[in-house]
Amino acid sequence: MNRDQIEGGFRNLKGRGRTALGAVAGRARPQVEGAYEQVAGVAQAAYGRTRERAEDLYEDGYRLADEVASRGRHLRDEAVERGRHLHDEARTRGRHLHDEAHRRGRALAVRAEENRGTTLALVAATAFGLGWLLSRRR
């Protein structure tokens, strides 16, 4: 409860009292002034409630913004961690594939070395076939 709500409530009560005294005394002016004070008091109290609600909304918005920022930082940290994990996994797989290709290449080179005649015939046949295919396109 803020100052405007309290003062508005007192002003409303004061106006009611004035209106009642004016009615008892039979005087119109105190009644009108009392009615004015009542309306002004109600308006001031309503302003106080509205101001309090606006302050509450501001605080809620501030807390919400803090929470959003905190969640954003958490998501960023999680994304960084997942990125690191994916990088490490890709690096491990890449090393494995590199090692496997290197091993198979060496095995193929050994096989080609052991079978020189067959390798020479395959290379010659491949070169002849490619030459024949390329010359037929022109």
UniProtKB/TrEMBL annotation:
InterPro entries: YjbJ_sf
Residue span of region Disordered: 82-102
Protein name: CsbD family protein
Organism of this sequence: Methylorubrum populi (strain ATCC BAA-705 / NCIMB 13946 / BJ001) (Methylobacterium populi)
